[in-house]
Amino acid sequence: MRLLPIVAAALLGHATIHAQNATVTVIHGIPGLASPVDVFANNAKLFSFDFNQSRTLSLPPATYGLEVKLNGQTVLSGSAMVAAGRNYSVIAHQQASSGIRLSVFENDLAPLQQGDSRLAVRHTAKAPAVDVGLDQGSTRIATIRNLANPNEATADVTSGAYSASLFAAGTTNRAFGPVDLKLQPGTGYAVFAIGDLTGNSFTLFVHTFTVPVKAAVTVIHGIPGLPQPVEVFANSARLFSFDFDASRTLALDPGTYNLEVKLGGQTVLSGAAKVESGGNYTVIAHLRETSGNQLSVFVNDNSPIDTGKARLAVRHTAKAPAVDVALDQFNRRVGLIPNLRNPGEASVEVPAGPFDASLFAAGTSNRAFGPVPLRLAAGTGYAVFAIGDIGNTSFRLFVQTYGVAQLSPIRTEIRGAACAGRMWISNPSPSFDESFEVSIFAATPNDAALLAIGLAQGNVPLPANCTLYVRPDVLVPILTDLAGRAAISVSIPKALGGALPPVYLQWGFPATPHGSELRTTDYLIIRQ
After folding, report:
1. CB-CB contact of 343 with 316 (8 Å)
2. pLDDT at residue 512 tops 70
3. 295 and 332: one domain?
4. Are the C-beta atoms of residues 37 and 70 closer than 8 Å to each other?
5. Could you give the CA distance from residue 175 to residue 152 in angstroms, rounded to a whole number?
6. pLDDT digits over 47-82, tens only?
7. Residue 7 included in any domain
8. Vertex 187 angle, CA 214 and 498, to 5°
């Protein structure tokens, strides 16, 4: 049995592209053609595909002469200039009333606010102008009016579940929909209307792309006794001024920032902070253990957390020796962080609820501070900073809170009809980072099997009443045993919690002496 982390399948299509290249997704939006079309760039054939399909390429920055050929004849041509690090969609599609064309759209990669998605709606169908309604439940969130072929409209929206409908422009006459859209944070969605609205080919094609997300950076003033507020600068630009025991939170684009803290116009502290897409950070100006000041940067863990829990980070940034940090609940000791020194930290995950925090001289029962009540809410991160001087009244705890996604449970379901063995899963409700078996039984003994894993569902009929239900992105070979069984161990990394797309798995048996055609089992869906 082999371990197959399902992240390999779940991250397909989201691989990091070299910064010097452009990402170009080519979409086939012309229905009714007699055969697949061939796509050429600078006279070199790239691939062929059918209506409602796409291919994503990584291309060096340049201007490309594009051609779409049908049975060797050029039916569309154009050019696209692509720049390093940019993201584009190229679509062959129908015009509003007659004819076809090639359109190029750039997908906006400007950093999103945390918790947001980017939605671009593009009219590339044989259809008149439409109004696009975006609903969340029974509430109309937004309306895009008079969208005509080949135009687009883009908006950043809070991530979540939506439905989209198309209406004849200027009316309430629904022309298409509603269609459900589940928008994930940090993701762009290019929704193309393709096909002929008057026929049965009209549909919405959704292309997703990864968008950088602004980092949340909280700056804390932890130095008591200064004669006036300090000023905070990033890359030589003044951000704000504030006093001891105060904080400010900023939304910053990913990158490296040179930080300065100035008092009376003079730089008293400086340092650098590299912030990554979607990260959460705390920068604190604070006292050292015995003398002097320093600027420290902490990373706040905002990865998903188990339902009903809170994340607590305790950070020693005070003029004080090492301490033991005790966490009590209802007069019972539930946690102890020993020997925490300036500028160290320790983090725990605990069930939500009321707690009391106390500080003791390290290795002793001598209480130095507290107890301080903490009420920890589920799905929340808490960074508790000891600041000030333990030798005077400036000493205190500063509590910063930040959002943490809670893990929704993993759900599995076996569907479909089988013509060669059956699927089985050892744990229908697995936890993240927990291994479970995906098996086949009642199959032909000693037969070569393939486990198909994909992010899209298919429905391809095969001979002998078999069906291919999965559009495979990964194929894993294995041999059945003497009883016609085989198993692969699968795990779902916790890091994918909250962003796990539906994953489809199906066993298949290629043509062998046992059978001349592909034979398949039923299929398994894994999702949140």
Report:
1. yes
2. no
3. yes
4. yes
5. 18
6. 999 999 999 999 999 999 999 999 999 999 999 999
7. no
8. 90
pLDDT tens for each residue of 244-254:
999 999 999 99
Backbone phi, psi, residue 217, to 5°: -125, 115
Note whether residue 1 is domain-resident.
no
Domain assignment present for 181: yes
CATH number of the domain bearing residue 142: 2.60.40.2890
Rounded CA-CA distance 451/474 in Å is 8
**Any bridge partners for residue 476, and if so which?**
451
> What is the DSSP annotation of 289-331?
SSS-EEEEEEE---S-B-TTEEEEEEEE-SBS--EEEEEEETT
pLDDT in tens, 284-316: 999 999 999 999 999 999 988 888 899 999 999
Instruction: Write out the DSSP string of 186-245.
Output: TEEEEEEEESBTTSS--EEEEEEEE--BPEEEEEEEE-TT-SS-EEEEETTEEEEEE-TT
Round to whole Å and give the CA distance between 500 and 455: 10
Same domain membership, residue 367 and residue 419: no
Q: Which domain holds residue 395?
A: 215-403
Q: How many domains does the chain have?
A: 3
Structure tokens at 289: 């253990």
Do residues 238 and 309 share a domain? yes
Instruction: Assign 429 a pLDDT band (cuts: 50, 70, 90).
Output: confident
How much is the pLDDT for 18?
41
- Strand 62-70 relative to strand 266-275, pairing: unpaired
Does 182 lie in the same domain as 90? yes
442 in Cβ contact with 484 (< 8 Å) = yes
Same domain, 245 and 331: yes
- Per-residue pLDDT of 406-420, as tens digits, reads 777 888 999 999 998
H/E element, 57: strand 54-59
Let me know if residue 8 belongs to a domain.
no
User: How far, CA to CA in Å, does 132 sit from each of 27, 137, 163, 170, 192?
Assistant: 21, 16, 10, 10, 12
